[in-house]
Amino acid sequence: MSFASLPRRSVLSTLLAAPLALGLRSARAADKPIRVGIMAGEDEDIWRLVSQNAQKSGLTLKIVTFSDYSTPDEALASHDLDANSFQHMPFLKAQNEGHGFKIVPVGNTYVAPIGLYSRKWKTLATLPKGAVIGVPNDPSNEGRALLLLQSLGFIKLSPSAGLLPTPLDITENPHDFTIRELDAGVVGRALPDLDAAVINTDWAHKAGVDVVHERLAREGVKDNPYICVIAVNSDEAQAPWVKPLVSAYQQPNIRQALIDVYANTVIPAFP
């Protein structure tokens, strides 16, 4: 039956019913929890508070924890998550380029300066010739680790490598350091077997590393490109729940929680 054969009142009712149905579907969608992927550990304490903040604006969160860096983006890209919060911008760029993901940042969280740690040596000057240095093996964090070693004067890297150098980009290694590539979640636990290791702050905590007393050096904070973000699929970037989610994180109580939970080793990256 065509609209032309319907009475005028029926046509009007039909036209009004369509947006009403869409509105109801949107309302039902809004009632579903927003699934957010994070790393297990300290961030669970942070996101419990974020969830409480979100509830005040009518947003319910379901926090999903992970123990490795690759899975949260895979889950987000396949829409098993609505958002995730664990990665810095160079890592996200590498993930998008390497896997064809269309994931975008929607809000900053914090900066966690990566550090060089040792249980065998007390200062940079005492690191011996031929020392074995552990680094995380994912592209962005390995690059970050090598750039730290370069900033300390231990190695030189090819300028063309940018933010993603690998050991193949080392052009000078006057101390004959051996670079041992390990999974980011393993390098902290391997510290006793290494002369030193460059470890992400969150994994250092998880591995029981004393971030203050076992750290020999850390990367600079000013203009640090490794800002961690809340990320979503590009087709969800304008979804109505995105701004309330980011706002629930970027609150004074979260700023203080980051300082407390991470023992003053991470720096909030929001106003």
Automatic annotation (TrEMBL):
Q: How does it sit in the membrane?
A: Lipid-anchor
Q: Which InterPro entries match?
A: Lipoprotein_NlpA
The highest taxon in the source lineage is: Bacteria
Is Lipoprotein found in the keyword set?
Answer: yes
Please state the span of the N-terminal signal peptide per the UniProt entry.
Answer: 1-29
Q: Which Pfam families match?
A: Lipoprotein_9
Keyword flag Membrane: yes
Entry's localization field: Membrane
Q: Which SUPFAM superfamilies match?
A: Periplasmic binding protein-like II
Keywords noted in UniProt? Lipoprotein, Membrane, Palmitate, Signal
Q: Which family does it belong to?
A: Belongs to the nlpA lipoprotein family.
Protein name as annotated: Lipoprotein
Query: From what organism does this protein derive?
Result: Asaia siamensis
